[in-house]
Specification:
homodimer, mainly alpha, Arc Repressor Mutant, subunit A, 5 helices, globular, disordered C terminus, DNA-binding
Chain lengths: 129, 129
DNA sequence: CTAACTGTACTAATACTCGCAGTACAGTTG
DNA sequence: CAACTGTACTGCGAGTATTAGTACAGTTAG
């Protein structure tokens, strides 16, 4: 399913969170789609189920998935707009990073390009409220 | 000079790096201005000089300041445009964060606002190459 | 040169994180 | 009940992070 870098300084569970997040955001994993069970994925990746569970728990905390005891873990379809707290903190980070990037010489025009780039790759199959 | 949260999970030296970075980016600290010595600042904040030094070293590595043995640490005036490597990594982070923010419901229009906001607060006293 | 300042290097203790392992419990489904 | 699912808890071992303490090195003023 993915590749992990065991030698990386970035923890395994964190790599998992990142990759799964990407898959969810890009809608490779569809809403309500079931994720592999902690034991299955652990077997495939030959790592400890506990590590998977840690990643799943993190994703659930962040609102990307939901887990049901006895059934499995699934991609969260509602999510998102509800977690305005999260949006706020993400925007805070964003502002910090943006000011840094612009300080380093990123031109507004280049930034706009970046945004359009993302718009097309994400908004491609989304709802327009 | 600043306030530190000793109870935070974020290391002290990292808090220092963040705050100093902000001061430099916003030009509260002017180019070539001398920073407080590691011992002075450590005394003021009642923390270990080594912690300050670690923050300063990090800032130097990232190109925000330069230090001269026996003289002191100073805000780096050239900096920036030279570190294109850094710009690249910042942009990478930026893309990740942007896609997350947009997934969470951030509208492009709101993003543009953010940018204009930063433009005026940063570009206010800068060179237009 | 000396004294008092500056940054820097090294070591050490402590605390935390990460990943693994094992065990046990709880809900679902057939 | 059996076999699957997620979840909780303990402990262990290795590594890393954080801070502190101490000592060294360059600069400057007298």
């Amino acid at each position: 399913m993915f590749e992990l870098d065991m030698r990386s300084r970035q923890p395994i569970y964190e790599q998992l969170v990142d990759k799964l997040k990407e898959l969810i955001i890009s809608e490779v994993l569809k809403p309500d789609e079931q994720l592999p069970s902690v034991r299955t994925l652990a077997g495939q990746l030959t790592i400890n189920p506990n590590t998977i569970q840690k990643a799943y728990r993190e994703l659930e905390t962040q609102g990307y998935i939901y887990s049901v005891k006895g059934k499995g873990s699934f991609v969260n379809p509602i999510s998102l707009v509800e977690n305005s707290d999260k949006l706020v903190s993400v925007i805070k980070e964003l502002k910090k990073l943006l000011s840094e990037a612009m300080y380093l010489g990123l031109k507004p025009a280049e930034l706009i390009e970046l945004i359009h780039d993302l718009e097309s790759s994400i908004g491609g199959g989304k709802n327009d409220d």
